[in-house]
Amino acid sequence: MGHVYPFHLAIIAVAITLILAFELLASRRVKSSEDMLVSGRSLGLFFVACALAAEYMGGLGTIGVSERAYKEGMGVIWYHISASTGILLFGLMFAHYYRKYGIQTIPEYLYYLFDVKTWKVNALLNFLAYTFFTVIEVVALGSILAGLTGLSIKFCAISAAVFVTLYVLAAGMWSIAYVSLFYMALIYLGLPLAFFYVLRFAVPNLPGADGVAGFQGLAGAMTAKGMDPAFWFSPFSLSPMTVVGFFVGGILAVPAAQATVNYAFGAKNWKIARLAPILAAFLIIPLSVWTGTMGIYAKTAQLTDEPKLALISTLTSIPPLIGAMGALAIVAAIISTADSILFAAASILAKDLMQRWWRPHADDATVLRWTRYSVIIVGAVATLGALTVPELLKQAYFVYTLRAVTLVCVFFGIYYRRAHPDAAFWSIIVGFVAATLYQFDIPIDYKPYLFNLHVSVVTVLVAVPVFLAISMLRKWTPDTSSTPPPLYARR
Amino acid sequence: MSFTSIPPFLLTSLGAWLFMFLFFIGFSVYLHRLPDDEILRQNAKAIENKRRLGIRIYRF
């Protein structure tokens, strides 16, 4: 891959310059903490939709999908169809409830639905989960950048952390909203261009393709290699359980995930908050066709024996300019997830933990300052984490569990009449304990007995009965949830 | 095998894409027709419980 490094570096340098120019523009719009945290609640349809879609198109949605297509065929398209379903459900069932209360963070909504203790425990766990996740994303980003540029993973991870921190610091949600438009343009330009080039110009050169371009030529080359195109091009090449897993994961990952849904909080009005997720769902569907096809091409052309490298090896096998555009699209997809996660952790630290809990009487200028400090703190943790603890993947369960258990609470709070604050509080606690025991095999390995279920599914299977049982046993009285939040309690 | 230029996975994905596009158009029209204050009638059940029992909901 050596000969293409300078092209990749040059194009990445141009993109960074453009992004920083965008952020200079965005920073002029920040006059208050609300501008920083929720873009002054003035985001239009395309801003919200692009930010939502870009947040979802991370490493799993690009490199992960390509890897899976390399191993199991194009049934991988269900990954993004299921993700779209989760985003669609968010728009249909949740977004307007959030927007109605003008919330800035998900834990805040748990206070409106339930009580102070549920808000506090969820805020703490949200902060920890998203801080961990920022470190994980930064390390992932560093690995990708290192693969593309030939520089060391640590250097790339630190550079990525510093870069993301700087531009989120400039204008918070405005920064991400502006840059998401740019990222979506990169994704929608770079990946289809590389996909088109591969099918039109690279496939005809494969043995067995007989000079035929497109999927027909690829099918010929696959047949010559002993791969059955009927299987590899089938939408049902993955097992039904895997596809069900995609749908469960897609649905659990979105509606209560601070990093994904906070753009709807910044929407101009409740109608945009509801409509933008539908547009985002539309935007993400084609991604698996582009990246999956390039994964299959890598296998057919025998570009690599390592499925994880399928997409990168395809992009580095085509002309450098087009390959670099594709690589930049992948970097854009991953970095747009990293910035949202960093911003989610910083929002909760500044708003829930520092202001609402610790200093509820702080004025807006102080909160704005704290928000910037929070971005720096989370960015610094991500940088140090990337340096010192590179093996954090198992800790990602924390954020999966949090999103799942918070979704259980929000769903029942909105749609179940008897949903009780104690049920919300205890389902969070019990869900987390169960997920931790399951994830770390304490005291035994539960996975063989539970069909190797994903930790978020286990969390839901534990949290739902706990929630329902406590809600049925406890009754609402005028004293339920009557403890005021710190701002009022200390007056 | 006889293979057309549009493989089955692409048809499925395009179908899903088309569905999402039509849904977006339909939902846009539906939302456009709703009055702006429709949101006032949409309350979470837990918040309705609080209102019914006179529990004060403080604004953060």
- Largest beta-sheet details of chain B: none
In N-to-C order, the SSE pattern of chain B is: HH
Backbone CA Rg of chain B: 22 Å
Mean pLDDT level of chain A: 91
Q: Indicate the low-confidence ranges of chain A by residue numbers.
A: none
> What class, by secondary structure content of chain A?
mainly alpha
Average residue-wise pLDDT of chain B: 89
Number of helices of chain A: 23
Please give the largest β-sheet of chain A.
none
Helix content of chain A: over 70%
Succession of helices and strands of chain A: HHHHHHHHHHHHHHHHHHHHHHH
| Silhouette of chain A | globular
Please specify the SSE layout and strand pairing.
The complex is a heterodimer of chains A (491) and B (60).
Chain A: H1 5-27, H2 33-38, H3 45-56, H4 59-72, H5 77-93, H6 95-100, H7 106-113, H8 116-149, H9 153-171, H10 173-202, H11 214-224, H12 229-232, H13 240-253, H14 258-265, H15 270-284, H16 287-300, H17 310-315, H18 320-358, H19 364-388, H20 397-415, H21 421-439, H22 455-473, H23 486-489
Helix pairs in contact in A: 1-9, 1-10, 1-18, 3-10, 3-14, 3-15, 3-18, 4-16, 4-18, 5-13, 5-15, 5-16, 7-8, 7-20, 8-9, 8-18, 8-19, 8-20, 8-21, 9-10, 9-18, 9-19, 10-16, 10-18, 14-18, 18-19, 20-21, 20-22, 21-22
Chain B: H1 8-33, H2 45-52
List keywords for this structure.
heterodimer, A: 491 residues, mainly alpha, 0% strand, globular, B: 60 residues, 2 helices, 57% helix, elongated
Folded structure, characterized:
The complex is a heterodimer of chains A (491) and B (60). By secondary structure, chain A is mainly α. Chain A is built from 23 helices and no strands. In chain A, helix 5 (77-93) packs antiparallel against helix 16. The longest helix of chain A is centred in the last third of the chain and has 39 residues, at 320-358. Chain A is globular and about 80 Å long. The mean pLDDT of chain A is 91. With 60 residues, chain B is an all-alpha fold. The model of chain B has no long low-confidence stretch (mean pLDDT 89). The chains are: A mainly alpha (491), B mainly alpha (60).
